[in-house]
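User: Predict structure, ligand calcium ion.
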Amino acid sequence: MKNFWKSIYLRIPLTLYNIVLAVILVTAFSCVTVYATEEENPIDTSALAETYTALYAPDYAPYSYIDEDGEAQGMVIAMMEYIADYADIEFVYISNESEYDIEDIDMNLSMLERDAVSEISIESSSYFEFPLTLLGADEWDGATGSVVGCLDYITLSRDDIFKAINQNGLRTYYNYEELADAYNNGEVDYIVVSSIVSTLLDIDDIAGTYNVSLSLDLESVIMFNNDMSGAEIDTFNEIIDNIDITDIYHLLVEAAMAASMEGDVTFFELMVLHRVEIVATVIILLLGWLLTIYYLRQKALLDFINVDKLTGVSTERKFMEDTENLLKKNMHSYKYQIISLDVDNFKYINESFGMVVGTEVIERISECTKNQFGDIMIFFARVVADKFLILTRQWDDATETNIRNSIVVLEENLKEVLGTEYRFHVSVGIYLIDDSSLPVRYMADCANIARNQGKSIYEHTFIRFSKELETQLRVDNSVVGSMEYALENREFKMVYQPKISLKTGKIAGAEALVRWVKVDGTQIFPDQFIPILERNGFIISLDYYVLDSVCSFIKDKPDLHRVSVNFSGFTMIKGDFANTVISIVENYNIDPSRLEIEVTESAFVESYDLMIGDINRLREYGFVIAMDDFGTGVSSLGRLNDMFIDVLKIDKQFISDTLTGVRGRSIVSAVIDMAKSLHIETVAEGVETEEQMLLLKELGCDIVQGYFYARPLTPEQFLSYIETFDINKK
Ligand code: C2E
Ligand code: CA
Ligand code: CA
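Assistant: Predicted complex:
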């Protein structure tokens, strides 16, 4: 009786410990659950075979053991069965005490022999981390001289335990039974065990119990046979990495409990034997229940900040967190990339179709993107409005082509909502994660920067982030910064490049081209700043500014020939283009036929539906409309017929490259003939040599423009050029 009380008394610290541990464990698991990565996509398990053989230790409860019916059981086995269920495969468990042929073994679950079998040496991801605890009768003071016992494989995998416990005497044992015996009979003063097992160990006859958390985790892994293919190992790891810990927590605890209750005992004996454990279990379950309620509340709260209401995909916050976690545990050193996706001009959709349509568009983009990216998408979040972030594995050119094609599918899909008229473009920015230690926020910013660079009103764009881009961005920012100032201070100056009629040999007009002349006299050419202004919308102000300057230049020179002005496609589809142009020209009281509006072929073709109304309006009003850079875009000669233009400018590239060959010559000739038959005037730009000029004359081209006659000239130079032209006639 005395012994019984002593035992109860001595058990108290252990019971308290159990309770504390239960609280810690359940809390820990609840937290893990809350933050566990959700499985957004089922894992492709096609690389796996139907059956695998797995070696296990039959006397290693609660990890693995053989039950009365000769079946493999235990926590490790529960884990494996979870994987088998997930992947719809089967594991055949082979005891490492039976006579087996190592050739037939696919994987080893017994940590004990992890080094013994060298054919089986590839480690999986860790599927479970067991916190380790030091148990002993006396308070641990780190004193030398006391002996610590632990399982031998723990020392194999974690030699830092030696350092942690600063120990002279360390004895290792093959299984928990031997370890408990060693402790019970005083062979060792302390034992190192995993926290879960410590509640189940049969350590009875001890003088006292003291425990200390070692803050060490013991990682459980599967050892794969070296013959196993990379794809199979990847798949297993992926399943392990994606396991929701709540799914298996109960399995593992159940397995551990079952292991401790193995054996032929009556219920009463069991009660007596395991009274403490039973009390602890009831408390664990009770706490578990309370914590589940707490967890569900917590989950509702977290859903609120983690799930996008509109589309059901993650929020940006969740995306950042998930990506960070994934990169932290990326043990297979996969390469990932962050993709930023955005529909250009979404504001326009909202404004012209209304919010309801806008919302529907967002839902469709989200749905379509999910379907089209399919397996390669790991995380997917909506940031704001039409902006999405996607994490994928690094892809190859074939994948990129697939995704490009899938955007065409999306385009078709959106036509149902927006009508066939509307042209929408997607910008995609890609950031390849080279250094996973960088903040995810920075990576996403880089993907966004790349995406913004690609914004084009003409086509879908896929831009990869690069160091050059970063530099470019800095230049962009400085341009934008000084833009307003430059406009106010009239730093944008016009130059005029004469156009010569091949029919009359006289000046037929000029093209107005812009230059940015800074205060210090440095000249910046349009190619360097116009693309930037098109990206940030400033181009609209510049285009109207240029038109205004040209009008003011020609207004009191009535016999100055026709001058053409370039307009960006961006300006033409934004705002009230035709009315703005007309009001500027009316302001100067200029005959509109003295002004030619140049629109590039690509803008013309791509945004035809959006701007044709304005073009017709301007044309009816009396302006001359020119299609610029013909030959660089995709329009066919046939389409010229449907387009309402007065002038066709054959691109300079076309002149220099193709005019030299017979084939190129016949193409230019066909273009000129076709234009003639449609009463469209032809202008060849970039004429640099006499030979080119003579040939174009022979082919019937109406007007030429290029360095052969003159470079773009300042207004003063241009005026004197007109005066002297006939004299110096070429
Ligand atoms: P663009 O409209 O095709 O203008 C013709 C470009 O070719 C001009 O370059 C001109 O200087 C150049 N050029 C003229 N003759 C020759 C030649 O014989 N050989 C060669 N190799 N080049 C020649 P610039 O002035 O640098 O303008 C570049 C582009 O910038 C223009 O191409 C136009 O797209 C755009 N741009 C210029 N001014 C404006 C403007 O005021 N508004 C808008 N929206 N765009 C402008
Ligand atoms: Ca032009
Ligand atoms: Ca041109």
